[in-house]
Amino acid sequence: MQIRTAIGPKESASLNSQALRENFLIEKVCVPGEINLVYSHYDRVIIGGASPTTSALELPTYPILRSDYFLERRELGIINVGGDGRVKVGDEVYELPFMACLYVGKGNKKVVFESVNSATPANYYLLSSPAHQNYPTRRLLKEEASPVEMGAVETANKRTIYKYIYLEGIRSCQLVMGLTVLAPGSVWNTMPPHVHDRRMEAYFYFNVPENQRVLHLMGEPQETRHMWVANHQAIISPPWSIHAGSGTSSYSFIWGMAGENQEYTDMDPQPVDVLR
């Protein structure tokens, strides 16, 4: 597990492109045959992927956690962005097709990831945060996630938002998680942008066509920076930073938050005319 320390807005404003990527971009999330994780000091979240191929992968614990098992003091959100898969939690097996979500609560000792077909393997995006109590393990399919249409063709940001883990959906201690699918011809996400000092956020981009990229914007509204992001790469977004982007084609992304509260609408909007 890689460890990323937290840095502030003044330090981030002075970083060049390579240093920005080293601090905030996770370039390899889905590694075939591996569980690949990053521990961030922003709200102690763990971000990563599990990509089983011919063999199942069991979620281990890590020295930095000082725990007997991974979920001893944590909760976990899982979204499949690959072929059909199944996740075993204890003795229960949950089928997870493309874009399905599984929440696994604190106290579950064994989590195992599998692909139904190794020729079209599953790719599980993982987001974990500290937890103080146990909520039930629950699966939610994309069709059950009460999709909400937002944006418009005229502003190139027509999109569908699927909310999975939040106060009115799957209950958790502090994890909030869902995904957004941009319509063909739309490229802008989270615009106008916002910040929320009460919680950090992580973005995972998928459905980005080969040889296309997403220009991810971060930083304070008056001191923005950017990174070019490819398919199956993730961004660590600090609480003080905006998180928006525009692609060279349409794409999808998973958003996840942890911190002070779980209010989906808790955000401080930043009008476009204040951006620099």
TrEMBL record:
Gene3D superfamilies linked to this entry: Jelly Rolls, pectin degrading enzyme 5-keto 4- deoxyuronate isomerase, domain 1
Keywords in alphabetical order: Isomerase, Metal-binding, Zinc
Cofactor remark from the record: Binds 1 zinc ion per subunit.
Listed cofactors: Zn(2+)
SUPFAM superfamilies, alphabetized: RmlC-like cupins
GO biological process, one term: pectin catabolic process
An example Gene Ontology molecular-function term: 4-deoxy-L-threo-5-hexosulose-uronate ketol-isomerase activity
Residues that hold Zn(2+) according to the record: H194, H196, E201, H243
Catalytic activity: 5-dehydro-4-deoxy-D-glucuronate = 3-deoxy-D-glycero-2,5-hexodiulosonate
Leading EC class: isomerase
Coiled coil: none
Pathway it works in: Glycan metabolism; pectin degradation; 2-dehydro-3-deoxy-D-gluconate from pectin: step 4/5
EC number: 5.3.1.17
Signal peptide extent: none
Record's function text: Catalyzes the isomerization of 5-dehydro-4-deoxy-D-glucuronate to 3-deoxy-D-glycero-2,5-hexodiulosonate.
Family listed: Belongs to the KduI family.
Name recorded for this polypeptide: 4-deoxy-L-threo-5-hexosulose-uronate ketol-isomerase
Organism of this sequence: Haliscomenobacter hydrossis (strain ATCC 27775 / DSM 1100 / LMG 10767 / O)
High-level lineage: Bacteria, Pseudomonadati, Bacteroidota, Saprospiria, Saprospirales
